[in-house]
Amino acid sequence: MFRSMAVTTDFSDAARAAFGAAGSLARKLGAHLYLLHVARDPAGFYPWQARAKAQYEAEARARTADLERKLEAVVRDEPAFASLPVKARVLHDGSANAISKFQRSEEIDLIVMATHGHTWVKHFLLGSFSAKVLQVAACPVLLVRTSDDGRGASTQAFHPQRILVPHDFSKASVESLATAREMAAEFEADVRLIHVVENHGASGGGPLEKDPDLA
Questions:
Q1: Is the pLDDT of residue 123 over 50?
Q2: pTM attached to this predicted model
Q3: Given the DSSP bridges, would you call strands 110-114 and 141-144 parallel, antiparallel or unpaired?
């Protein structure tokens, strides 16, 4: 199933909501786990700003080293990662594309994220960033919802008992169902399959026939 996984953080409490799920899955499946942080894009410079560019690049290297130390501290101190060989990585680009490129280069099978966090640009991680990752990632993405106050329980174990799969009979839906069945088999969970029928004003209709390919 998932042999290589990645979980993201912006160092906020909200981002920690995804740690429990990532740690639980990595232990259950024996998967490799990466802890990722996406850093800001570098500023643009004109040719005559060589001195400013050199100074900025030196400061950027120092910031990267500091971020790497912070990630290593999270790996060391986070209860959800206890006894797991988690690899910390700082990604550059400042966008969801950085995660997409890393996912492809390292052949990541699953990305785990909290639904939002709080950092230097609050709304950047309040849903739009997660949505962009969903659009560009070439693997399944597990979004862990935080509580209403934006905080998450990092040590909460992930053990699904019922998995709900919306299905519109597309290729993507078939692939989603296959992934859900694999996860259900690992956790001895039930899979519930639903299809939403649009109401165009009809008074009613007969029961839907069951597709033998989805049995």
A1: no
A2: 0.79
A3: parallel
